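Let's do one together. I've listed all components of the complex below, 543 residues spread over two lines.
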Amino acid sequence: MNLPKIASISKKIVVACVGLFLLLFLLVHLGINLCLLRPDDGAWFIAASNFMGTNYIVKVFEVVLFAVLFIHIILTIALQIQNWKARPVRYSQPSRSKTSAGSKTMIWTGGLVLCFLVLHFANFYFVKLGWVEGKYMIKTEELFSTELQNEYMAATQGKLSEEETAEFQTKMEKINAVAVKAEAEGLSSSDMKWILNLSAEDVEPLEGIVEGVEPDFYHMSYELFQNKAYSIIYIILFIALAIHLVHAMQSAFQTLGLNHNKYNKFIEGFSWIYAIVIAVGFAIIPIYIMFFV
Amino acid sequence: MNFTLKIWRQENAKAKGRFETYKVENISSDCSFLEMLDILNESLISNKIAHPVCFDNDCREGICGMCGLYINGRPHGNDDGVTTCQLHMRKFKDGETIWIEPWRAKAFPVIRDLVVDRTAYDKIIQAGGYVSVSTGGVPDANSILIPKDKADKAMDAAECIGCGACVAACKNASAMLFVSAKVSHLALLPQGKVEAANRVQKMVEKMDELGFGNCTNTYACEAECPKLIKRSNIARLNREWICARVGKEK
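Okay, and this is what the predicted structure of the assembly comes out as:
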């Protein structure tokens, strides 16, 4: 874990810069999550999360984000190990120096956030990667693609051979379960709408026949937040994140050399406001779903 | 006033240390902390109880930086902006138990009892904490004009007496406040600017090499500094470092 060739201040500057990037990412994530609160059956949230999941520029930023997160974690652990080594014999008395609790617990609040990230990935990101089962959605026009429609036309006009007809029928049977759901909700192929809340059993047969199956994060979020234990853990972890952020932002500016009587108060106030906005913004979603849905 | 003292006793650098309990009685409230320890040592010697307790001290007027004890969880004890020698017993409650420990840091090994080896600070200064001056006549005092605010800031930073309380207070045993004070007081003045880029790099590299921790901007150093050196110096050190690295000429 020792990175002896990188000077302590250089490591800290990198941690501060990537930390500021992560602060910006949190705002973007919060913006999308708050769409969950709109009474529009998830239209905005699905549009936003689908954009984030499919846009190529966002995909590049996804790689950047993972790299940044990795650097932030590795460097802080390396720095922390050096810090522990710097005092091999501890004091017998606890420190009574006037310091903020947040600044002394950064590694622990950071560790809690990391634990939450693992849980968060297991719940959402791994579904996207196909490692874990979740809920899925698909667009109506994908379900009734032109290719399938052509095959359907050919079959009804008797242009297909017996073998091809049988093959087509198996395909239609596989699609049927989903198609029935779509029809039950009054959707047809021309609607260009999402068929939501599909289970893994629903979409498994579609593999190789239709494309465009996406995770339905909207219904997954609602289901998760209706679980009170999960919601409470979620809220507690965002309090830990807020404690982390209050010190993180001020600390990042100090590390980058930005300290002046003119704007120190502003940075401090802004750090508090930012941390509270992030924590309250994220926590309000499970609170709303637990008590008002 | 009467006190129960829990003092760290350690024969030498390699011996295993332990806390010993001593009682001191009839201590004047105007007694300084070091005078109280002198009284304890007198009684230890005259009553042949134990070897006297070793502790560093010199000027006893708060300007030399020699004394430094970790008292009840605070470097230089329970008072702001003073060294241990300037701490008075009136700051304690009668009958209080006082825990006295040496500075704890890998870079400041204990030599004996409460005395630590602070050569590490000298090594950092030797690495670059100076202005190279060729021999010659003493320059005229007003030949280089320095703005008042710059002179004040440089003077504030130069107040650092190198006692090591910043390292002792820091949860990471980081020497950033010390190094930043030394870098600042030279970098703020025209005489020191010439070598500023080289100086900051050499001093920080030496600081890392000696095994001090990394600053996490907790500011326990600022809270405990007997000379009230400000955290803004650490930001200046960071700025100096960035400028030196970005503009590095080789």
